[in-house]
User: Fold this.
Amino acid sequence: MSLQQQLEQIAAGLPAGKLGIYVKALKSGQEWAVGADERYPLASVLKVPVLVEYCRQVREGRLRPGDRIELTHPSPGSGILKELDPGLQPTLQDLVTLMIIRSDNTATDMVIAQVGLENTNRAMDRLGLKNIRVTMDCRTLLYNCFGLANPGSPPEPELVAEYERRANAGERDDNAIAYSNSLENDVGTAREMGILLELLCKGEAFDAVSSEAALAVLKRQQIRDRLPRLLPEDAKLAHKTGSIWGVRNDVGIIYTPAGPVIASCLSGGCGDETAAAADAIARIGKAVWDQFSA
Assistant:
């Protein structure tokens, strides 16, 4: 069975929702795609364009990685910093590392406050990636999932309590922008996320130094339950996962024996079947590895 047939079979086998897939072998330039031009919610994959813009601003001298930022108001969801006491002062580079390798939402929002959402979107525009939009930080995105407005910073205690109540009770707003493919959401296509990774791999995301700095962080990823799950333990990847209800994503570069291969997988509308979506992405990772390890 060809790689294209395998990808189509995996996508068709989802019990709920849809999967966008884009694969490209960088040495040959050959591409494989299934629904790669449809927009999907990025969830924590939004942290990749933020990382790219951060590295660009560092290269231009607008941000300094060693600057210390005080932890004040944690954001909900994944991460370590929300469990620590306010007053901690990690460096900006520490926050970027946590944003990627542990998908820390508090670290992400602290980085976004320095980088800027508008700057991130302008950066994507300059790279020709018109379907990658980052409109909400993690706190805003998660509050939106439960039908709550932008909580601001610091959020009102009453709003925090209501968010926690709804989250614990599973009272999602299924019509929330956070679950949509609207450009008002944090969204992207599998192809454009793949192109962004290709630009990093080729040193062409603004410049070679910025590109390599971003890749260096992505290569330290510790969450390995999707693309790397079925690969050899020593397989090397540079990648980022993303998860909210109904969504499981992973976009990355798989360093196969035959050279680097882009594998960009975004999903949506999976409902309670997100485990199946994660399994599908793991199978895509294996299909790619097997194709380029023969």
Summary: Strands lie at 18-25, 31-34, 39-41, 187-189, 236-244, 247-256, 259-268. The radius of gyration is 18 Å. The domain at 3-291 is CATH 3.40.710.10 (Beta-lactamase).
